[in-house]
C-alpha cells in the first residue's frame, strides 16, 4: 500500500470508519513511517480547527455539516490568502532584486 493510500486510511480512521484490524494495520504503519505519522497529526489539527469553528472544541469527530461545501472552500481560500499575504509581505519587507541592486551587483562583479 502506498503512503497516499495510508493517508486515506488516516482520514477514515479519524471519521471512525475503520475496523479494528484496519486500525491495527494503520497503527503499525504509523509506528514506522514518519511521513504518515505527521500527516495524521496535521489531519487531526485541521479537524480541531473545524470543530472550533463549529463552536464544538471538544467534539470527538468533525461536526458533519461543517466539513461539506462552503466551509471547506472557505478554509482553503483562507489558507491560500494567508500564504499569499505572507509571500507579499516578505517581498515588500526584503524586496526583490530591483534595477538598482542588479546594477550594483554587476558593478561589484566587474570590480573583482
Ligand atoms: Zn507511510
What features would you describe in this structure?
The chain is elongated and about 70 Å long. The protein is built from six helices and no strands. The protein has two domains: 1-67, no CATH class; 69-112. It is 78% helix and 0% strand. The protein has 112 residues and is mainly alpha-helical. Residues 3, 6, 29, 33, 35-36 line the site of zinc ion.
Q: What keywords describe this structure?
A:
single chain; 6 helices; elongated; binds zinc ion
* Assembly form of the protein: single chain
Cα Rg: 22 Å
* Helix proportion: over 70%
In round numbers, the mean pLDDT is 83
Count of discrete alpha- or pi-helical segments spanning 4 or more residues: 6
**Beta-strand share of residues:** under 5%
Number of beta-strand segments: 0
Report the major sheet: none
Bound molecules: zinc ion
Order of helices and strands: HHHHHH
Distance between the termini: 56 Å
Low-pLDDT segments, ≥5 res: none
How many domain units?
Answer: 2
The rough form would be described as elongated
- Secondary structure category: mainly alpha
Amino acid at each position: 500500500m502506498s503512503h497516499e493510500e495510508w493517508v486515506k486510511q488516516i482520514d477514515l480512521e479519524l471519521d471512525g470508519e475503520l475496523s479494528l484490524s484496519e486500525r491495527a494495520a494503520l497503527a503499525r504503519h504509523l509506528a514506522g513511517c514518519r511521513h504518515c505519522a505527521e500527516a495524521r497529526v496535521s489531519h487531526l489539527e485541521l479537524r480541531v480547527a473545524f470543530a472550533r469553528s463549529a463552536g464544538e472544541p471538544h467534539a470527538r469527530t468533525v461536526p458533519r455539516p461543517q466539513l461539506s461545501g462552503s466551509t471547506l472552500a472557505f478554509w482553503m481560500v483562507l489558507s491560500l490568502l494567508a500564504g499569499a499575504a505572507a509571500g507579499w509581505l516578505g517581498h515588500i519587507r526584503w524586496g526583490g532584486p530591483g534595477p538598482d541592486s542588479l546594477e550594483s551587483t554587476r558593478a561589484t562583479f566587474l570590480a573583482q
